[in-house]
Amino acid sequence: QVQLVESGGGLVQAGGSLRLSCVRSGRTFNSYTMAWFRQAPGKEREFVAGIVWSGTSTSYADSVKGRFTISRDNAKNTVYLQMNSLKPEDTAVYSCAAGLGDLITRVTSYPYWGLGTQVTVSS
Questions:
Q1: What is the C-alpha separation between 25 and 22, in angstroms, rounded?
Q2: CA 68 – CA 61 distance, rounded (Å)
Q3: Percent of the chain with pLDDT over 90
Q4: pLDDT tens-digit profile of 20-68?
Q5: CA–CA separation, 73 vs 76, rounded Å?
Q6: Rounded distance, CA 101 to CA 108, Å?
Q7: For 7-18, what is the mean pLDDT?
Q8: CA angle, 1 then 99 then 118, to 5°
Q9: 69 and which of 39, 40, 52, 82 could share a cystine (Cβ 3.0–4.6 Å)?
């Protein structure tokens, strides 16, 4: 099984930056695809960014493309989300997810989830 713990959230001014981290633990032989999702109050959870085990393939939501960068360090069992040029509409709880599905952008592809970290961007 897999356990995920996020960190790095906080309060920033519009235009600022944050770096989120997600650490994986638990014994597994699977090479998981990792992703970040976010959910704002009253809204559905949405895909933000995803990355395969090798790091050679990534995917981003159109709303964050060019501003956010996902990466991973398998030796540290960690995936990162570098968020630049933050906007108030980026405010949400950001959750890390791990899975083996083929559809990297789908919530249903990820059976393992962290509890999330709050990101708040003020205007």
A1: 10
A2: 9
A3: 84
A4: 999 999 877 678 999 999 999 999 999 999 999 888 999 999 999 999 9
A5: 5
A6: 8
A7: 98
A8: 90
A9: 82
